[in-house]
């Protein structure tokens, strides 16, 4: 005992004598009753804080993230999901499944290359990593190459030579021994943004280098690569694929897929291009097709004729597309929210043949007879020999005095609707030398013509003009039928009826009108069906009229003209012209040519889609299995004998965790949301092994909604969803959360907080109090208007504590820029909330409350506000942080997301805060929650991270005998 007491005394003397030197009071922070021992800190500099020295944030778990890159080899896919490489079994393409994953990398994966036993990863600043996947269930890193301050963006491989885009340009590695890659050569890449992607074909490395253009580098000697050519036709080049003598480049913001002839790599020549709808970032090429990922869709483009690229299939996505891989007749599409979609792609043996011929002017109408196509273009009728329909050859032409808008053929005569010069009759008996035989000059604008027997029916102004053309040299008007106030845009004749559609603008006068012309000299209305659209085309077959309108294609039952009824409809955006052949309707639209299956007129269905670079076809005709389209300045020809089917989704995989934008904690569960996807439930029992146990999709894909916040309490989850209001989800069964109630359906809430029986929601109006006692029937019971300091709302977040709601808000004013403040609302009576105080800040993005302080992250950092008197809040301290967006507080630490990571700030003394640690994250940190010493960070493309606050060992615990340790 004596020895023990002596030891304790010696320790006490040592400890006391060292408090002012080697030990600081903050190292004793775990012992709350040693107030006297903390006195020496008063002599420390003002910036010093009594926080635990050496406290750090340590990553212990991670789940989810965007799918950033994919590669397929045999039955396995290797996907970069957030900061991991995940192995998926795709033997059953319809049901991809995860079988293994690596440990967490410091960075998200930028590119993946699969080569037998090894997978090579471009991991950004984490360099080149080599993963052994001989056991797919347990992939393990076995090699790497990393330079100081270096990064790797993309990789390609030929035999045992690996080509990587690095911060120094193109770096070439010998990977004969994959465990130890050896750099053997390099070549600088010009341009301010460095390289984006690389592919190697026939000893030429093609490097897409953003603003540096496309470089062609001779790598015949990998140790001495030499640039031999460059193409800089577009501002940004994001990706490149090469087949044979053609390179296909994605031009990013220029919205184009461009084809280059690289038969001579030193002198690349542009030979064709296709204009995309969105920005285009990735391209793969195989079997006569280019597979292009635009921002929100995947396109299959027929490149058989480089001068006439045609999009033969589009698959729309609701989230940004990040990568594409083609294998075994399937396209695998990765999205930013952690989804992998498997599509059946067209069979290369069924590629549609396409051709075109440029005309002298804008092509408006087309007709075909025998081996000739007659095209109304500019101020002439042009005749093309289509003996080989894919290669039309101009044969002859005849000038017209006006603008040729449409053409109809009967025998050796072509009848042209010539705008304000009426009807022109052209003899085409000699296609090489057509000439005008007669004409009838109408007083109005003639837009279309149809001919039956010896009569021509003209869409002239707002009526139908009937012309006797029995003597084509002397066309004679025999009747005029005034249809209504809107111009007639198209006419068709079947038996004794003329079918005509009218309309520019959306009025009740637009629609389909049927005129009885059994007596051509006395036309009589037989029926009218209103269509409130711009109607531009009509075709009639088997008792149905097919009307092309700005809304789509309408199928009208015209068996009884007096009792017409729409029996079918398909939304083909911006339909312009329509014709039928057999069981198909062919439509030109704003984007191209659509083929619709009309075997059941009441249920028209897409059969195929062709979207050439020059869209907005004004007219079309189908003859002999070919579709002839008048579009732009081209006569386009499509081989319809074999239809190229649209890409069809056959499989779907959703990565656990997914894209993570917000997180809320309740007990053993974390509830995360993807701003566009829905709710996910994560089990936190083992933070080192986070597991998704359930998910709930929010809203319909067609709803323009986003999820802006999540809160959880008592096994219920509260979601703030723009355009959907407040949603309440029962998560009693975490594996199957289900929505049970909604409130504020017309609101666009920014944030929500829940205390007891009330949910508090902030939207553009202000603060709403929702009674959630009955969660299936939530009821708004109170509200208070909160003014904004600007004219553009940016953000509102809410925290509730001690009978008050604290609302941080950020706005933008057109004249003064960013503005914001903290609003304090008394909610002691939830049915009558009252604003009692405010504190001005510049763009307040987030707020947390603990004790007498509100912790607000704003444009310049963290502001701690003393709210002990809510009506008179005052500043207690400020800490400068760039890019702060959300904040959580536990004990004496504030955790702040700043985009690239999370910062831990010591806040024991608000007047003199210090930064204790910073943990960098690979994605974009957007939200943070803390509980029991663990910090959970929503990192967007990096998923959900679990960080542990690692406290240093307490000096008392080090020296005290075990029996006396606290």
The gist of it:
By secondary structure, the chain is mainly β.
Write the SSE topology:
Layout: H1 2-18, E1 56-63, E2 67-73, E3 76-81, E4 84-89, E5 97-101, E6 111-115, E7 118-122, E8 128-132, E9 140-145, E10 152-158, E11 161-166, E12 169-174, E13 182-187, E14 197-201, E15 204-208, E16 214-218, E17 226-231, E18 239-243, E19 246-250, E20 256-261, E21 269-275, E22 280-286, E23 289-294, E24 297-302, E25 310-316, E26 321-327, E27 330-335, E28 339-344, E29 354-358, E30 363-369, E31 372-377, E32 380-385, E33 393-399, E34 406-410, E35 413-417, E36 423-427, E37 435-440, E38 446-452, E39 455-460, E40 463-468, E41 476-482, E42 488-494, E43 497-502, E44 511-516, E45 524-530, E46 535-541, E47 544-549, E48 553-557, E49 565-570, E50 575-581, E51 584-589, E52 593-597, E53 605-612, E54 617-623, E55 626-631, E56 634-639, E57 648-654, E58 662-666, E59 669-673, E60 678-683, E61 691-697, E62 706-713, E63 716-722, E64 725-730, E65 738-743, E66 751-755, E67 758-762, E68 766-771, E69 779-785, E70 792-801, E71 804-813, E72 817-826, E73 834-841, E74 844-850, E75 853-858, E76 861-866, E77 874-880, E78 886-890, E79 893-897, ...
Protein architecture, described:
β35 and β36 form a beta hairpin. The protein is globular and about 105 Å long. Strands 22-23-24-25-53-52-51-50 form an eight-stranded antiparallel β-sheet, with no helix packed on it. A four-stranded antiparallel β-sheet has the order 1-84-83-82, with no helix packed on it. Strands 2-3-4-5 form a four-stranded antiparallel β-sheet, with no helix packed on it. It has two helices and 84 strands. Helices cover 2% and strands 55% of the residues. The protein has 966 residues and is mainly β. The N terminus and C terminus are likely disordered. It starts with a helix and ends in a 7-residue tail after the last helix.
């Amino acid at each position: 005992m004596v020895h023990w007491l002596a030891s304790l005394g010696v320790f006490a003397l040592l400890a006391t004598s060292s408090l002012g030197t080697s030990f600081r009071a903050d190292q004793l922070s775990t012992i709350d009753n040693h107030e006297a021992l903390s006195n020496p800190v008063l002599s420390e500099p003002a910036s010093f804080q009594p926080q635990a020295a050496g406290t750090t944030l340590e990553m212990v778990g991670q789940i989810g993230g965007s799918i950033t890159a994919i590669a397929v080899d045999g039955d396995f896919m290797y996907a970069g999901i957030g900061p991991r490489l995940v192995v998926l079994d795709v033997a059953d393409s319809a049901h991809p499944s995860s079988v293994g994953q690596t440990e967490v990398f410091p960075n998200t994966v930028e590119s993946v290359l699969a080569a037998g036993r090894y997978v090579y990863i471009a991991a950004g600043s984490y360099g080149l990593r080599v993963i052994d996947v001989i056991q797919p269930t347990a992939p393990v890193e076995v090699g790497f190459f990393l330079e100081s301050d270096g990064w790797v963006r993309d990789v390609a491989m030929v035999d045992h030579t690996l080509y990587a885009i690095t911060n120094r340009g193109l770096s070439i590695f010998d990977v004969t021994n994959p465990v130890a890659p050896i750099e053997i050569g390099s070549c600088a890449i010009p341009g301010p943004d460095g390289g984006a992607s690389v592919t190697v074909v026939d000893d030429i490395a093609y490097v897409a280098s953003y603003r540096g253009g496309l470089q062609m580098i001779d790598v015949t000697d990998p140790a001495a690569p030499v640039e031999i050519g460059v193409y800089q036709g577009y501002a940004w080049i994001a990706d490149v694929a090469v087949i044979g003598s053609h390179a296909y480049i994605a031009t990013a913001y220029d919205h184009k897929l461009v084809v280059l002839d690289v038969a001579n790599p030193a002198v690349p020549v542009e030979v064709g291009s296709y204009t995309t709808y969105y920005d285009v970032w990735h391209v793969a090429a195989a079997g006569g097709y280019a597979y292009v990922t635009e921002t929100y869709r995947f396109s299959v483009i027929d490149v058989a004729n480089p001068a006439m690229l045609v999009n033969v299939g589009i698959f729309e996505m609701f989230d940004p597309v990040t990568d594409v891989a083609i294998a075994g007749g399937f396209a695998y599409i990765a999205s930013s929210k952690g989804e992998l979609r498997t599509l059946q792609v067209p069979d290369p043996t069924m590629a549609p043949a396409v051709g075109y011929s440029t005309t002298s002017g804008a092509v408006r109408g087309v007709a075909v007879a025998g081996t000739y196509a007659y095209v109304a273009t500019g101020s002439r009728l042009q005749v093309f020999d289509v003996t080989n329909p894919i290669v039309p050859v101009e044969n002859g032409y005849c000038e017209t005095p006006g603008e040729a808008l449409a053409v109809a053929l009967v025998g050796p005569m072509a009848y042209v609707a010539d705008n304000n010069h009426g009807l022109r009759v052209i003899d085409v008996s000699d296609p090489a030398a057509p000439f005008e035989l007669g004409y009838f000059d109408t007083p109005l604008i003639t837009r279309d013509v149809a001919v039956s027997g010896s009569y021509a029916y003209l869409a002239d102004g707002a009526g139908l003009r009937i012309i006797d053309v029995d003597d084509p040299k002397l066309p004679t008007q025999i009747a005029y039928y005034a249809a209504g106030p809107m111009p007639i845009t198209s006419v068709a004749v079947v038996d004794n009826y003329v079918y005509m559609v009218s309309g520019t603008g959306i009025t009740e006068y637009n629609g389909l009108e049927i005129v009885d012309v059994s007596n051509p000299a006395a036309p009589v209305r037989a029926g009218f069906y209103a269509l409130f659209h711009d109607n531009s085309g009509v075709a009639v077959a088997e008792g149905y009229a097919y009307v092309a309108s700005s809304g789509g294609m309408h199928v009208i039952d015209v068996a009884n003209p007096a009792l017409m009824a729409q029996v079918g409809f398909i939304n083909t955006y911006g339909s312009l012209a329509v014709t039928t052949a057999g069981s198909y309707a062919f439509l030109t639209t704003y984007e191209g040519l659509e083929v619709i299956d009309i075997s059941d007129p009441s249920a028209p269905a897409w059969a195929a889609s062709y979207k050439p670079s020059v869209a907005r076809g004004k007219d079309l005709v189908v003859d002999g299995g070919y579709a002839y389209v008048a579009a732009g300045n081209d006569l386009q020809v499509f081989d319809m004998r074999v239809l190229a089917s649209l890409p069809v989704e056959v499989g779907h995989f959703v990565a656990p965790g997914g894209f993570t934008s917000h997180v809320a904690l309740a007990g053993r569960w974390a509830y995360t949301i993807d701003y566009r996807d829905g709710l996910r439930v994560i089990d936190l029992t083992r933070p080192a092994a986070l597991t998704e146990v359930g998910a709930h999709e929010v809203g319909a894909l067609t709803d323009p909604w986003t999820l802006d916040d999540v809160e959880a309490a008592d096994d219920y989850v509260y979601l703030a969803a723009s355009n959907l209001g407040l949603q309440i989800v029962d998560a009693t069964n975490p594996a199957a959360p289900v929505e049970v109630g909604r409130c504020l359906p017309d609101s666009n809430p920014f944030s929500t907080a829940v205390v007891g029986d009330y949910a508090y929601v902030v939207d553009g109006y202000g603060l709403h109090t929702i009674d959630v006692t009955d969660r299936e029937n939530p009821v708004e019971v109170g509200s208070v208007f909160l003014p904004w300091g600007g004219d553009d709302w940016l953000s509102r977040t809410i925290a509730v504590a001690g009978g008050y709601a604290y609302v941080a808000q950020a706005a933008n004013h057109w004249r003064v820029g960013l503005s914001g403040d903290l609003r304090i609302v008394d909610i002691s009576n939830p049915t009558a909330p009252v604003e009692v105080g405010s504190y001005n800040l510049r763009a307040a993005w987030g707020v947390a409350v603990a004790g007498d302080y509100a912790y607000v992250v704003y444009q310049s950092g963290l502001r701690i506000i003393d709210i002990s008197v809510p009506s008179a809040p005052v500043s207690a301290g400020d800490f400068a942080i760039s890019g702060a967006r959300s904040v959580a507080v536990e004990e004496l630490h504030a955790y702040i997301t700043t985009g690239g990571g999370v910062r831990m700030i010591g806040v024991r003394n608000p007047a003199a805060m210090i930064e204790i640690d910073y943990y960098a994250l690979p994605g974009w940190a957007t939200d943070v929650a803390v509980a029991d010493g663990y910090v959970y960070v929503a990192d967007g493309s990096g998923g959900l991270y679990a960080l542990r606050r690692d406290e240093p060992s307490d000096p008392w615990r080090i020296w005290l005998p075990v029996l006396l340790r606290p």
